[in-house]
Amino acid sequence: MTDADPASRPPAGQGPDGQGPGGLGGFISRGRAVIYSLAALSLATAVIHFAVAGEHFQEYWLFGVFMLAVAWLQLAWAIAAPFVAGRLLLGSGIVINAGVVAVYIVTRTAGDVIGPTPHEVEPLGFGDALCTVLEALVVAGCAWLLLASARQQARPSLTLAPVFTGGVTAALLSVALVAGGPEMGMGSDMGASAAPAAAGAQSGTSMAGMGGSASGGGSGALSPAAAAIRLPTRSPAGSITMPDPDAQMQPGMKMASSRACTATPSVRQQQAAVRLVNASWAGARQYRSLAAARAAGYRPVTPAGAPVVHYISPAAYEHTLTGGPVLDTRDPQFLVYANTPHGAVLAAAMYMTTPGGPTPQPGGCLTQWHVHTNLCFSRGLGIAGAITRAHPSCPPGSRNRVTPAMLHVWFVPVPGGPTAVDAPDHQVVRAAGQVHAPKNGTA
Asked: Rounded distance, CA 173 to CA 8, Å?
């Protein structure tokens, strides 16, 4: 490929790329330098998309497929560009990367168009912003080359080795990262507690942080007997299994106890866990109707309209503060609703102790308590937001506090069963869509 500028063409006696007869000369044309640079940028964007594909598969399968498809297209373009940089390839570089940039802008302004949490705006992060800048540079570079009327000058003899090496390397990279790649996430926020920072939340205002791995309170290894526990319940969430905080803890959270709870529950504890779940469902099922919950005095404590909304009964929590039982299955302090495309669905009852108060575990390690460290409280228990990488400080008029300990009993089939420590919003919404529920408006 040569430039439209005659002064940039290689001197006589050099190869078609401006190199010496042996292909090792030091001069290349201006256009060739640009296309090599664009190939490097495209390769970098492909690596970023490969790295985040696994995380996006966990959120929604179509998101993962999109990330892999974009990564393969950008990788193929990077490999082909130095050898066949004709007008068709330059045009495809513009179309592919401009399309990805457009998707990025939409998801960071209007929110996701599809998926388990439509219309939820994705947060900004360094990795995804860098990727978008690189893609914009590829678009600009391809447009410049097209306007400069650069003509193709392929060297087929050099294409086989880099294409084969790049393809095999990319295939291995794809498999490795999708199976368990680094969570450098496009759209993965970084949460921060009042002390150390933890990886961020999807919604930023839900009681549950979203995505990523937990910090602190690791569970250690479960015994085979504990891992094999399956206790049927009457909850639509299904059977109780042994909680795995390492898998179920969310960013901005930690276990209420610093000691890992891995002891195999006794038969009595297993029976008590089943009774707790069944009694919780019996006491809360009347609130499947959002109107009934509101009539009983429950009101949202997290922003209404979010994917997952927590409702508090001030009277129930005041009863706990004045010495009433923490695990009052007839009158839980909190109800959790998931906003599905068909309306709000009762997802869980949540029990909260008093600050520094008791954390009863009738089911032993089947019933584990956790706290949130990155939430911003306005007045009382009103949650104004969360500390994240995009929002490193609390909104005006609110302050960060560690919550009292809490315990969920789930009524939708989230991973981990009815006594799972917690679940990301997208898992809760997806699980809520699987259960029968009365018609409600938006919680």
From this structure: 38
Instruction: Tell me the two tokens of residue 294.
Output: 């509101």
Q: Residue length, the chain?
A: 443
Give phi and psi for 200, each to the nearest 5.
Answer: -80, 180
β-strand 334-340 against 343-352: which pairing, if any?
A: antiparallel
Q: What is the reported pLDDT for 380? A: 62
Whole-number Cα distances in Å, 242 to 134, 250, 263, 281 = 45, 17, 10, 19
Query: Number of C-alpha atoms within 13 angstroms, CB side, residue 36?
Result: 8
* pLDDT tens digits along 395-414: 888 888 888 999 999 999 99
Domain boundaries along the sequence of the chain: 6-180, 224-432
Tell me how far apart the alpha carbons of residues 304 and 311 are, in angstroms, rounded to a whole number.
Answer: 9
Tens digit of each residue's pLDDT (9 = 90 or more) over 139-160: 999 999 998 864 444 444 444 4
DSSP assignments along 103-149, one per residue: HHHHHHHT--SSSSSTTPPPPP-HHHHHHHHHHHHHHHHHHHHHHTT
Nearest Cα to Cα of residue 432 among 409, 411, 408: 411
pLDDT level of residue 162 (50, 70, 90 thresholds): very low
Mean pLDDT is lowest, of 81-90, 142-151, 275-284, 349-358, for 142-151
Of 319, 318, 311, 367, nearest to 344 by C-alpha is: 311
In this structure, the strands spanning 406-410 and 343-352 are antiparallel
Q: How far is residue 351 from each of residues 183, 280, 311, 437, measured CA to CA in Å?
A: 31, 10, 12, 22
pLDDT digits (tens, 9 = 90+) for 254-273: 888 888 888 999 998 999 99
